Amino acid sequence: MAAVTAGCAATAGPTASATAESGASVSPAPRSVFVVGDSNSTGFRGTLATGRQSGDAWASRLPAGAFAPVEGWAVDGATTGAMRAGVEALDPHVDQLIVMAGTNDLATGVATDTVRENLAAIAAHVDAPEVLVLAIAPFDALATEATALNAELRAEATARGWDFFDPWTGSRTAEGTWVPASTVDGVHATREGYAAAGDAVAAHLGAP
Fold this sequence. Notes:
The chain is of the alpha/beta class. It has helices at residues 16-21, 39-42, 48-54, 80-88, 103-108, 112-125, 143-160, 191-204; strands at residues 31-37, 67-74, 96-100, 130-134, 163-165. Strands 2-1-3-4-5 form a 5-stranded parallel β-sheet. Strand 4 (130-134), helix 7 (143-160) and strand 5 form a beta-alpha-beta unit. It is globular, with a radius of gyration of 19 Å. Residues 1-21 have low confidence and may be disordered.
């Protein structure tokens, strides 16, 4: 940031407070975001960085004017244990933590209590005043179990004072399975499905 000398003070423009007092709109600074997840956060592209570059990751839909930078740790196939290890190797300090986790724990038989413990450890390690837990996406082969896990995730978020949100309502049937047009394989969304989820998250967080 360039320094402002005393000699420039007389010609400087209105301050933020003066602009606010005059009734003009003052845009808030973008919020920094740290995303943690698996292939449904990478856009099924391997890593979060790759998915954001390709535009497939749902996080690529977060408007830069409201959320920047958007970083994180997400890898295809990751369980909450792998996420925890990956995050604990980093030192994130952000405004907003967003976690979508548990699909691969279901697939590999990890206990729900372990999922909850790993989520708590991730949230404790990331320095973020706001935590948002996202519901996992539909899982056709384990639809009942996925519905139950989402109920557990909601309960955990409520108990810890975190926010909880389901960005998949437009892609999930009443039975907990995917809307057929929204999935490529019963586990992962289409590109349009990820875009819809990202738009829903952005709207939930108050993006203009």
